[in-house]
Specification:
By secondary structure, the chain is mainly alpha-helical. It has seven helices and no strands. The chain is extended.
Length: about 170
């Protein structure tokens, strides 16, 4: 009698667990219900510039000089130039590389295409009953078919004659 009650209880738990959906594969935020206190950044204090003529023109929706810039502040604190963080397009040294890799064109919708294909992949390789029941991460299992075998790839390149100076010596089979 206890066995039957236990089996019915387990079946009910598994059925309830299977109803929950929409969880990401790698459930990193499980158990986080409150706000992230590290996401709040104070603005810089207001100050009067020495010359009002050097103030930048206002840009609607643009950045303000009192907006926080933690990356730029960190670069400046380490002795770097925070202006180097601004995207200035493709550098002259990389123009030939970009021209070579985009010689057959590129798809401007690639991010949307990949997001759709990944959503379909996750739908086919979603959580199983026990994974749902225990709330375990299924990321590694779901994407294991796409993982690269580093040893086999190293051997393939070494057999082809490629110099792999930072890799260990070829493995004997």
């Amino acid at each position: 009698m206890r066995t039957i009650a236990l089996m019915i209880g387990m079946t009910a738990l598994m059925a309830l667990g299977a109803c929950s959906g929409g969880k990401p594969l790698n459930n990193l935020k499980a158990g986080q219900a409150g706000p992230d206190e590290f996401a709040i950044m104070p603005t810089r204090s207001l100050s009067m510039p020495p010359d009002l003529a050097v103030l930048p023109a206002p840009t609607p929706g643009g950045a303000n000089i009192t907006d926080p810039n933690p990356q730029g502040d960190a670069v400046a604190a380490l002795g770097g130039n925070p202006d180097r963080l601004v995207d200035q397009g493709i550098g002259a040294a990389d123009q030939a590389l970009v021209a070579q890799v985009s010689r057959q064109g590129n798809d401007p919708q690639i991010r949307q295409t990949l997001a759709t294909e990944d959503a379909q992949w996750r739908a086919r390789n979603g959580r199983r009953a026990l994974e749902t029941l225990f709330g375990s991460s299924v990321y590694q299992r779901a994407y294991s078919a796409m993982a690269l075998d580093s040893r086999a790839e190293q051997l393939r390149w070494q057999k082809a004659g490629a110099v792999t100076s930072t890799a260990p010596a070829p493995l004997e089979e």
